[in-house]
């Protein structure tokens, strides 16, 4: 029984960290490139779409761990401690008060992340197709 309680606590801590990163993303003091990294990491963490499908034996889960861990690691190092601290406090308070709105927030985050990724791909495609070599 203790193991289930510990697992629930760790799951709640991870959810709080992910939501704190989302709140950090929304902060105006965060630079644009950190926002892009956060959007990608959070979107990839909660998105059902993967680079390598989970059906592939080891690599399907390994890419999830590597991409999300690196995205969160670099995001934490690029964010100021003040922004992260305030976001963690706000995330902890909001998650303890209501959990029903978290599902809606998660779907919004995934949608925004994929729209951002699509916009970046479209801009890059436009740049490469209109690039003149001579």
From TrEMBL:
Its main location: membrane. It is a multi-pass membrane protein. Residues 35-70 form the DUF1232 domain. InterPro entries: DUF1232. One of its GO terms (cellular component) is endomembrane system. The chain crosses the membrane at residues 32-49, 109-128. This is DUF1232 domain-containing protein. It comes from Pontibacter cellulosilyticus.
């Amino acid at each position: 029984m203790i193991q289930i309680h510990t697992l629930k606590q760790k799951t709640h801590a991870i959810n709080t960290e992910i939501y704190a990163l989302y709140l950090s993303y929304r902060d105006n003091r965060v630079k644009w490139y950190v926002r892009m990294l956060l959007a990608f990491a959070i979107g990839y963490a909660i998105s059902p779409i993967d680079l390598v499908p989970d059906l592939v034996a080891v690599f399907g889960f390994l890419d999830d761990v590597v991409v999300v861990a690196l995205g969160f690691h670099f995001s934490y190092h690029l964010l100021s401690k003040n922004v992260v601290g305030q976001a963690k406090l706000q995330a902890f308070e909001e998650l303890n008060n209501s959990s029903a709105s978290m599902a809606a927030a998660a779907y919004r985050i995934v949608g925004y992340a994929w729209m951002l990724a699509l916009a970046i791909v479209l801009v890059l495609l436009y740049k490469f197709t209109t690039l003149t070599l001579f």
